[in-house]
# Entry
Amino acid sequence: MTVAPARKSVYRVLSLVAEQDAYGNVALATELEKTGLSGRDAGLALEIVYGTLTWQRLIDYWITELSSVKFDKLQWAVVVLLRMSLYQLRFLDRIPAHAVVSDAAELAKHHAPRAVGFINAILRSAVRQNAYMQPLLTPDFEGLSRAEAGLRLSFSDFLVDHFCRALGEQVAYQTMFALNQRVMRAVRVNQTRLSRDDLMQLLEAAGVEVTESPVSPYGIRIKAKMSITQLKPYLDGLFTIQGESSMLIAPLLGDVRGKRVLDACSAPGGKTTQIAELAQDLADITATDIHSHRVDLVKRQARRLGLKNIRVLSSDARDVEGVYDAVLLDAPCSGLGTIARKPDIKWAVNQERIAEVAGVQKDLLHHMAVKLQPGGVLLYSTCTISPLENERQVQDFLAAHPDFQVEAVPECINGLGHDIHGWIRILPQDFGGDGFFIARMRKAW
# Structure
């Protein structure tokens, strides 16, 4: 029997995630490029990979309930096959159960031959029975305990506790529910070349369903089955793929035309290029990133968009010389606000990881303060929902640098009210985007 190409790819990707701690989105992109999967096959592979990683804890609970063998005694090949198959059986109604079971058996013959009968028995049992614990697919949290929330929303006990302490129980449940949903795809118009309305017309002519972003005046929400990076408007540098939350950051630097700007952690270049576009390519921008392979991404984006005044350096921002009128520090972080895009973050983040990255953020903030001219703006942002990396980080910075103060952003950004302290926390349920934190600080003259 021939296994569906999508399931072969899913098995390879999830095996890399399980056994080698690979990033799911990176492993999937590499797999699709290598195999040439496209159209429905690519869409199915994406659905199964992201869905399996999103619901991994609940699926593992089902495996434990259905299996006579202890979970930690199962080999990884068996775990991966059961996870991806149970996801399809429980969440994808349009896929025939017999196709899922037979493909799992065929894959097992090559990767876990001694477990073919075991896998077949587990999956057939799952087809006959209802799940022991149902996923929470509607935002009904009444009477939900933290323990039950962890299972039914499929989050680790650590993250359930983390979000509850940071946000309060009900908001935490809303946040976790939102992080289980797909983020709306969005692009940003290159306003140095055309208007948003003009770009929307070009995309519609290319067969892409578009609507104006309610979040950013530069954004467009899109629905497209094809790869939009192959569209002529993209190849011609007329737009950039960027999340709506991310689009809110660069405008907060203010008018930087004719000024020196440092983007300290710039890759893959979305915010860097937006700074340049907002300044009509009249700002002197230095973009740095510590990872040399990611620096190339920034260079390619700038070239594609036709932006001339971006100098890209493969360097730690702390080692860059000179002083600047404005600094953007979109700091490395735990990424908890991007779980909807990168669901394997659920299973990788712990308190030690958060503390480690918070130490890096603190050191970066200190060095950026030194590089800023008096009167300049330091914009600090993260894509996480963690007080230690966000609010606490800014509070500690201000205590150590009394020549800085938080400068409140406008009373609201597209309907998002700021905290009484002046910074903004964007939660994924606010408009279906990534979770972000933004604080604008100004250095005294």
Remarks:
- The chain has four domains: 5-128, 146-179, 186-241, 245-443.
- The two ends are 74 Å apart (CA to CA).
- Residues 146-179 form one domain.
